[in-house]
C-alpha cells in the first residue's frame, strides 16, 4: 500500500512538472538561496519547494531545479541593427501585416523605409524595400554577489544578518578573510537591494544558531515558540534553521549579546598624524614624602614596604618607555608628573595650583577617591581622564576606564562555552561561590552541579570533593567544567581528579572516551599557587578570561628589548600596562586630535599585552569592552583564537 502511495505521489509530481517549465542551476562558491532566487526572478520558497535539501545549506556544484514562468523571466533587451534590404513586389491579397509576419519585421519598419505607405494603402505591384535586421537579445545579468565596504562597529554577525546569510556563508564568500573585519575593508556579499536587506534593531536581541539546534532546543533556551521565531525572521519558515544563522528575538538580558569580537585592531601608526605638541598629565601615588632618601638601601626598603610606591614606580617605568619610543618617532610630547600622595587633599592642591585648560589627557590617579576628584573637577573643562587599573570609578562623561570589568571577563567565558551546543556542562563550586554557581546554572539549565563537601557535624565547608562526586557528574564524550573557587587547596583537589578522569576509548573493556576542558569565570591566586599542578591545568586545557595576554619572550619586541636594556629586568604586567596605555592615549590624540573622536574611528587597538575598545555608556563615560580568552597549552598560556 505504501509503495502505491509513493508511486502515485511520483506520478503527480511528474504531471505537475509537465505543466510547468523548469531550468537547472549549478551552485557556485558563495552563492545563497537569496542570490539565486533573485537571479531567476523567483522566491526562495519556490526553490525550497523543489529542492528541500537546500534547507540544510548549499554546496558548490549542487544542481538545483529552478521553476521558470513567463511572469518571472529575466528582463531581455532587444537591439536591431540594419544590415540591408530585400526587394519585394506586392502580390494580390498581401497586406502589411502578412508581409511583416513573412519577413519577421514590424509593420512600422516597412513603412519607415517605404514612406509612401504613410499616405497610401498597399497595392498589388508595389515594389517595397524590406529591411533586414541583425537581432541581438541582451539578457539582463544579475550578479550573485557585490562588493561591500565594512562600516564602523560592523562585525561578521551584523553583516551576515544584514544580507540574510550565515556567518559561515559570509566566510565562504570571502575565503581570504582571516580573523576579524576592519573598518573600510572591501568584502563580498549577496547582491541584494537596500530594500531587501535586514536592518539591525538595537531594541531587539540577536542570537546565533548553534550546530544541531532545532526549534525545540531554542524553545527551552529562549522561551520562544517556532511560530514567534518565524514571525520575527521572514524566510525562516521556508529555509528552516541553519547553524550560524542569526535570529532576531525580543530583547532579553538573559540572552548573551552577540559580540563584535571579530574586529581587527586598528594600527594607529598607519593614520595621518597631527604635528602639534600633545600635553599629558600623569598622576600617581608615589608618596615620596614617606621615602627615606638617606641611602640606596633605605630607598629599596621604602619601595618594598610601600605598595603604592612600588605600583607607581612599575607603572611609571612603562610610561617612560612609551615616551622614549614616541620621541624616537618624532612625536612632540610634554608630560607633567604629579605625586598625589594618595590623598584627596593633595589632589585638590595640584588641581588648584596648575592650569589644566590645555591638557589633552590625564592618566591616573590610581586609587578611586583621588581619581573621582580629578575626573569630577576636570569634567567642566572636558579634559579626558583615563583610569589605569581601577573598575570601581564613577564614569563621568570625561572618564575612560581602561581596565575591563569583572562582569565582562565572566561574560567572555560564558559566551565562549555557549558556542558549543553539544558538550556536557558541569559546574563545580565551594560554598563561597554559590551565587556564581547559581548564575551559571541559569545560563546552562542542563548542567550537572557538584558542590564541595561539608562537615556533617558543624555544617562548615571542608573544601574538597571525592573522585566519585565528579565521576558521577561527567558523561562520555566532551565535558566543559566550570570550577569556581578562591581556595588553592580546593582547586588542587578538583584539578587533580579531573585530570585523572580523562581517558580514551577502550573497546576491549567497553569504556567510552571522556574528555574534560576546564574553565573558570574569574582567575585568581587559587589557580596559581604551588599546590596546583600546571601539568594538570595543561592537560585540562584550562580556559579563563584575562584583561591582558602574556607577551612571548621568544618574539622580537622592541619595547621588551629596550626595557630590559634600560632597567636590567623584564617588564612586569604593571610596566607593560603603563607602556600600552600611554602609547594608546598618545597615538589616538595624534591620529584624531581628540580622545573622544577616536572611540568611533579606532574601535579596537592592541599593543604588547593590552587592547582597548572603548564604548560609551548612555549616560556617562567610556569603558573598555574587550578582553582576552586564554588557555594553558603545553605549560604555557596562549590566546584562544577568536
Q: How many domains make up the 3D coordinates?
A: 4
Say which CATH homologous superfamily of the largest domain is assigned: Response regulator
- Structural Rg: 35 Å
Query: Structural class from helices and strands?
Result: alpha/beta
CATH fold label of the largest domain: Rossmann fold
Shape: extended
For this entry, what is the oligomeric state of its chains?
single chain
Please give the largest β-sheet: 7 strands, mixed
- N-C termini distance: 55 Å
Got a strand count?
24
Q: How large a portion of the residues is in β-strands, by DSSP E?
A: 15-25%
What's the CATH C level of the largest domain? Answer: Alpha Beta
Helix content: 25-40%
At CATH level 2, the architecture of the largest domain is: 3-Layer(aba) Sandwich
Strand order of the largest sheet: 10-9-11-12-13-22-21
Task: Describe the structure using short key phrases.
642 residues, alpha/beta, Membrane-bound Lytic Murein Transglycosylase D, Chain A, Rossmann fold, 4 domains, 7-stranded mixed β-sheet, 4-stranded parallel β-sheet, disordered N terminus
Amino acid at each position: 500500500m505504501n509503495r502505491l502511495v509513493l508511486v502515485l505521489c511520483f506520478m503527480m509530481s511528474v504531471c505537475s512538472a509537465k505543466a510547468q517549465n523548469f531550468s537547472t542551476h549549478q551552485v557556485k562558491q558563495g552563492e545563497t538561496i537569496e542570490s539565486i532566487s533573485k537571479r531567476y526572478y523567483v522566491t526562495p520558497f519556490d526553490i525550497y519547494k523543489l529542492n528541500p535539501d537546500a534547507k540544510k545549506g548549499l554546496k558548490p556544484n549542487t544542481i538545483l531545479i529552478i521553476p521558470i514562468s513567463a511572469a518571472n523571466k529575466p528582463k531581455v533587451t532587444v537591439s536591431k541593427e540594419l544590415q540591408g534590404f530585400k526587394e519585394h513586389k506586392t502580390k494580390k491579397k498581401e497586406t502589411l501585416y502578412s508581409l511583416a509576419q513573412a519577413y519577421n519585421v514590424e509593420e512600422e519598419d516597412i513603412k519607415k523605409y517605404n514612406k509612401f505607405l504613410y499616405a497610401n494603402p498597399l497595392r498589388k505591384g508595389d515594389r517595397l524595400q524590406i529591411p533586414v535586421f541583425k537581432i541581438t537579445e541582451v539578457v539582463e545579468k544579475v550578479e550573485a554577489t557585490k562588493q561591500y565596504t565594512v562600516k564602523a562597529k560592523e562585525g561578521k554577525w551584523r553583516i551576515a544578518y544584514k544580507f540574510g546569510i550565515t556567518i559561515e556563508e559570509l566566510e565562504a564568500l570571502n575565503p581570504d578573510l582571516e580573523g576579524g573585519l576592519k573598518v573600510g575593508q572591501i568584502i563580498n556579499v549577496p547582491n541584494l537591494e537596500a530594500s531587501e536587506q535586514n536592518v539591525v534593531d538595537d531594541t531587539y536581541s540577536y542570537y546565533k544558531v548553534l550546530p544541531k539546534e532545532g526549534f525545540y532546543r531554542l524553545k527551552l533556551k529562549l522561551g520562544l515558540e517556532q511560530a514567534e521565531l518565524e514571525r520575527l525572521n521572514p524566510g525562516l519558515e521556508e529555509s528552516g534553521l541553519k547553524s550560524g544563522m542569526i535570529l532576531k528575538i525580543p530583547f532579553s538580558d538573559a540572552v548573551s549579546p552577540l559580540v563584535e569580537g571579530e574586529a581587527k585592531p586598528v594600527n594607529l601608526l598607519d593614520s595621518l598624524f597631527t604635528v602639534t605638541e600633545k600635553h599629558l598629565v600623569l598622576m600617581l601615588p608615589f608618596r615620596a614624602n614617606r621615602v627615606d632618601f638617606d641611602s640606596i638601601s633605605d630607598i629599596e626598603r621604602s619601595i618594598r614596604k610601600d605598595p603604592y610606591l612600588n605600583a607607581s614606580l612599575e607603572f611609571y617605568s612603562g610610561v617612560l618607555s612609551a615616551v622614549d619610543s614616541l620621541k624616537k618617532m618624532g612625536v612632540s610630547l610634554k608630560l607633567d608628573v604629579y605625586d598625589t600622595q594618595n590623598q584627596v587633599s593633595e589632589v585638590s592642591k595640584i588641581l588648584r595650583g596648575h592650569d589644566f585648560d590645555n591638557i589633552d589627557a590625564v592618566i591616573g590617579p590610581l586609587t578611586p577617591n583621588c581619581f573621582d576628584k580629578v575626573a569630577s573637577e576636570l569634567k567642566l573643562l572636558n579634559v579626558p581622564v583615563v583610569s589605569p587599573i581601577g573598575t570601581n570609578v564613577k564614569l563621568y562623561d570625561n572618564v575612560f576606564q581602561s581596565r575591563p570589568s569583572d562582569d565582562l571577563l565572566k561574560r567572555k567565558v560564558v559566551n565562549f562555552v555557549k558556542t558549543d551546543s553539544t558538550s556536557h556542562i558541569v559546574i563545580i563550586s565551594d560554598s563561597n561561590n554559590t551565587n556564581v554557581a547559581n548564575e551559571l546554572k541559569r545560563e546552562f539549565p542542563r548542567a550537572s552541579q557538584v558542590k564541595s563537601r561539608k562537615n556533617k557535624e558543624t555544617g562548615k565547608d571542608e573544601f574538597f570533593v571525592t573522585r566519585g562526586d565528579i565521576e558521577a557528574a561527567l558523561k562520555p564524550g566532551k565535558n566543559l567544567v566550570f570550577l569556581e573557587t578562591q581556595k588553592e587547596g580546593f582547586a588542587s583537589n578538583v584539578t587533580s581528579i579531573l585530570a585523572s578522569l580523562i581517558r580514551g576509548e577502550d573497546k576491549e573493556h567497553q569504556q567510552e572516551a571522556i574528555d574534560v576542558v576546564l574553565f573558570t569565570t574569574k582567575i585568581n591566586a587559587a589557580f596559581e599557587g604551588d599546590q596546583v599542578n600546571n601539568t594538570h591545568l595543561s592537560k585540562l586545557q584550562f580556559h579563563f578570561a584575562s584583561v591582558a595576554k602574556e607577551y612571548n619572550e621568544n618574539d622580537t619586541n622592541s619595547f621588551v628589548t629596550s626595557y630590559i636594556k634600560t632597567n636590567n629586568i623584564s617588564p612586569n604586567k604593571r610596566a607593560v600596562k603603563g607602556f600600552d596605555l600611554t602609547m594608546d592615549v598618545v597615538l589616538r590624540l595624534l591620529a584624531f586630535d581628540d580622545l573622544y573622536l577616536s572611540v568611533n574611528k579606532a574601535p579596537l587597538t592592541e599593543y604588547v599585552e593590552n587592547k582597548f575598545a572603548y564604548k560609551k555608556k548612555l549616560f556617562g563615560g567610556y569603558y573598555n569592552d574587550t578582553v582576552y580568552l586564554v588557555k594553558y597549552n603545553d605549560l604555557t598560556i596562549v590566546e584562544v583564537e577568536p
